[in-house]
């Protein structure tokens, strides 16, 4: 009998050989510090004896262990339920979903918003529901955007990273083609890029979109909650009226789980009806919706954002003063190392000093551009930032990088 199964062992060996095999290392809690365990496979994990400082998560505002956010989740679980129990369109729509969506719409300056069960689902669901004829996509866009483009089955034209001039020339070229006149076009970009810390030139992208009648969709996953009044880069730059689809996650600064889309009432009505990732998926769990609402409220009405930006500036300045090259222009601080082995050595040196700053290597980033992705959290104390900088100096010297 022929074997029509799958050679999983071979696949895993190939990953191992290419040093691309990943594994799970649990931590005791999600906060700015914690105890990690070595990957345990299916066995019981054993936590390290030393506590590590975490400079690697997207919990940018440090709200995952905030008492108010935890109380909101607890209360929603007790009064509404632990799960939505069904698609929002059946019986899974609750008051906490409606509250969250009203607050998101207010923050994003739109008529309405819609919560999805993840940011991934929001991107895939929205892009496919719009059914564009052509998508123009930044070359470094997130995997969930790329998967949305693939699933939409239309032509995707990739433009150079954060390059509005390249986008414009690709729009121009497409406009010259024979059947472009009745096509629908969607330009899609992250606002803050997760691995590079770069910020998309949104105003120039909107100019290009408007010149050609295209729609613009912006993924604010790494910006939501961090900019003006708890909004994203779209709010910071006053572009809410020019961006057709504002998308983001609840899983990063908002310390919860889920995704959202904000836009016109018509857009949201269409997504409620046509986004398969919304229609055929159980509604966001009520405790997640309530936690995100509370986190968004705190992001809007406290000094937590300022504390994050202070920490990011302190850390960036300290690293640059030491001689490291720090990329980007946001709270994400990619420390460029170059060689993948050097990046691994630096990350290992940091880990030996109880600081978690993972190495990012090809194929996630281009060959020769390996880096450590360093993300401060609003709740890191000044001493934590100093400890991180001291570890960078010592580990950098050990790895001959300074
Ligand atoms: C830019 C971007 N978009 C979308 C997502 C997906 O969001 P979620 O984790 O909520 O599924 C992520 C998360 O990694 C992201 O970085």
Automatic annotation (TrEMBL):
GO biological process: biotin biosynthetic process
EC number: 2.3.1.47
Pathway(s) annotated for this protein in UniProt: Cofactor biosynthesis; biotin biosynthesis
Classification via PROSITE patterns: AA_TRANSFER_CLASS_2 (PS00599)
Keywords: Aminotransferase, Biotin biosynthesis, Pyridoxal phosphate, Transferase
Summary of subunit composition and partner proteins: Homodimer.
Protein name, as recorded: 8-amino-7-oxononanoate synthase
Lineage summary: Archaea, Methanobacteriati, Methanobacteriota, Stenosarchaea group, Halobacteria
